[in-house]
Amino acid sequence: MVNIANNLETVKASIEKAALAAGRKPDAVRLVAVTKTHPPEFIEEAIAAGHLLYGENRVQESESKWPLLKEKYVNVRLHLIGPLQSNKAASAVRLFDVIETVDRQKLARALARHMDEIGRRPGCFIQVNTGAEPQKAGILPDQADDFIRQCHDDFQLPVRGLMCIPPVDEEPSLHFALLRELAERNGVEELSMGMSADFEIAVQFGATLVRVGTAVFGTRGDYHKKDNHHQPG
Ligand SMILES: *Cc1c(COP(=O)(O)O)cnc(C)c1O
Fold first, then answer.
1. In whole angstroms, what is the distance from residue 46 CA to residue 30 CA?
2. Which sequence spans correspond to the domains of the chain?
3. Residue of 79, 195, 210 to test ligand 1 pocket, by largest number of atoms within 8 Å of CB
4. What is the pTM of this model?
5. What pLDDT is recorded for position 1?
6. Which of 34, 54, 61 to mutate to test the pocket of ligand 1 (most atoms within 8 A of CB)?
7. Which CATH number fits the domain 4-217, given the four candidates 3.90.420.10, 3.40.50.2000, 3.20.20.10, 3.90.1150.10?
8. pLDDT at 226 (0 to 100)
């Protein structure tokens, strides 16, 4: 059995320790608990332990579990941390409080339009493909300055931060340092970087948000599989 409350405490203690070691304030870093593949009961356990900030990587999976949870627990906040197709932009604007994966013009334009239509403005992070990996989402580092400016000035998106997922087989610190440099150069405040395996390094390099799944909820579940999408009640 996974002890979610214990795990939350352990991860938060590690974040604080890493922040203090880096000369940062412990409350300068927030934990986004990543609940993808896990059922609502796991999430309610984390909420009962007092945790309010969550991340999901798929719109469809999120729509099957979060509307009821958000109704029941009005203080929870939900971040989208996975790739977003333009045709799901409206759903994302309705459900998420922050969209961390804005990475191309077409999506930025769609988000801007839906925010106007829906009258809801989730904070936006620009995802940067720091390793320039062909299969990975994110704007390329050498196009990031222009894209950030465009999102802000042309599309008037509420750009709050940058996000990255370093290549699995590389030293993450180089990627964290690059993301931080891009943020500083563009006057962007928040940095979403670091996962279960490397969040302490990310904190050392200035992360303001770390996205941690496995270290809190254990190995991935199977809630994302279509057959498991039941409507409660
Ligand atoms: C799943 C996921 C995480 C969390 O990964 P863990 O290794 O389980 O902590 C973080 N960020 C993104 C974008 C993810 O998809």
1. 15
2. 4-217
3. 195
4. 0.96
5. 78
6. 34
7. 3.20.20.10
8. 56
